[in-house]
Each structure stands twice: as structure tokens, then as C-alpha cells.
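ok so i was messing around last nite and threw this chain in just to see what happens. nothing serious, just curious
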Amino acid sequence: MVVQSFQLLLIKTIAHGPYTGGTEVLVRGNGFTENTTVLFGGRFVEPLDLLFVDSRRILVYTPPGDPGLADVEVRREDLSATLADGYEFEAIAVDPGSGSVAGGTYITISGFGTHFDDTTIVTFDGTPMTGVNVVNPQQLTGFSPPGVAAISSTKLFMSHLIYNNQNNSASKKPGRQRKLISN
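result:
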């Protein structure tokens, strides 16, 4: 008798990303085939966003999702494996994810459930964003400040975003996810 093995061991390159999706994630396990599908929070990864690497690895780009923890599920024929709360969709998205240390990078910040207004302040590692324009309660634009080394790296750039106003605040510190907290 042959017992098929199928297991989801680890999901990682990054275990969190913006609610808008598009974060590259390496899913690890065993028993994967070219017919394996992946879901984040019940949403399928599009076929063009899934690359079968080998029987132990699949590279995906996350679909959009609701902010918060999401299960990661891998399916192959009649088999499935789920990593409960294996990924966190963040409520803030920053585009682009990196910029020049000289400053002046045009940035769009989108928020899920935010209430951006004229009192909103955005800082990068303590230095205020310049030219802030509130497009609507869920989106603002502006320019990165000069002299903030963190914005030269996507990981650090996003790690030092702080959003706050009278109604909401969000911060991302190294090693922690960004969360919206209502006052």
C-alpha cells in the first residue's frame, strides 16, 4: 500500500504584506506538483502568479485580502494542507516599496478602513513626508523626506512608516506588523 504524503511545513519569505496583494511568498512543504493550487484567506492565487519550483517549493504572489490573519491552504487533487493564520494582510499599502535616500520619491499610501484627512501626519523614521495630499479617506500621496536611509530598502522603508491622525494610528516597527488602532 502506498500512502501519499502531502504537507505544508512553512510559508515564508515574508509572512505579511499589504491588503492589495502582490507580495512574493515562498511556500514550502512536500508533495507539491504542477497541479497544486494555493489559497490565502480562501482566495486562490491566480495561475500566472504561481510558479511550481519543485516538489517542496512553490513561489506565489499573494492575492488581495482583508486585513488581518489569513489561513494559507495548499491543494493537490484530493489532498489539502492548511497553515492556520499563516499570513497577515496589513491594512496599509505603500507604493513604491523603495526610494532614494536623497528623498523626493513620489509615494502613494493606501489604507483599508483608514480616515486620512488634513490632520494626517506621515513620517519615515521620524522625518515627515513632504507635500502630503489627501486624495480621499483611504489614500494620500506625498514625497519621501531626504536623509532617511531606511527608504533605500523595501523592508526598512515599510518598517519605518508611521501614520497617525485624530481618529486612527498605525505604525510598523522592525519585526512587527502594521496595525490600525482606533482611538
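not much to say yet. Confidence is low (pLDDT under 50) at residues 149-183.
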